Amino acid sequence: MDGKKKEIFVMLIAVLGFLFQLLAYVTPSWIVLENVPTINGRLDLRYSVWYAKYCSRIGCLTVTPFEAMGSDGNQVVTRSSWIEIQAETTVAIICSLLGIITALCHLRKGEAFRVSVGSTIAIVSLFVSGIFPIIPIGKVSHMNEMLQDILQNNNYFPMQLTVPYCPIIAGIGAFFEFVAAISFSFWLHSAIHEASRTTTRERPTGVRDISNGVARVQSPPSYQEVMEGCYNIAIIPPSYEEAVNCMETTGTKTVKQQTMEMLGTRIDEHYC
Fold it and tell me: Is pTM, for the whole model, over 0.70?
């Protein structure tokens, strides 16, 4: 997979994770109770993170989650626990959005998978948005289990508990964000490693000595060694970097000309 496809994959997975989480947090299906007794008759109660709905055949009434609390008859859904859930889901969705924005800005600068402040923020934010939703999902799942036990063991409550699908959607979104963070981190590390290998390959790593018919790779000779004739520079000239380096350190035109003559190679004045 080339760099462009990797960028598209990471951004696509991150955006999908954000959309799944956003859908889960605004949809009233974290806790679903049917046949809840109220002064207006039996209604269905559906909890979202930020609101709750009482629904009947006629229509729905939207209230805050705190106004709906206590309708289960046992205070399973408490104010403090729901405030924690709201805070945790808010952190998750903000980190998801922040990760997408910083990753997009990082890639639009042409930096691809290089270490930068933007890439670091993107990875950390995506990791947080992939891990943090596990906390509210676990809390709501525990609440649903408690309600299910109460309704099964007590015939006094005529309510029925429906399987909520929002925690599942939020879990899928968190999984996508976690995959995006892992992919971004893995490809960033691979790009750094590949860049390091490329730099090493391009750097002069040695000079081949063919004396006595044996080829050996030695460390790059210094300018002094070249000047003293330690190597057959007519066959194996020093690298361009070594030639420029030695000419810049001498400081005289005469020595530069002598060096060019020894190299047996024409070096343009631009490189001198």
Answer: no
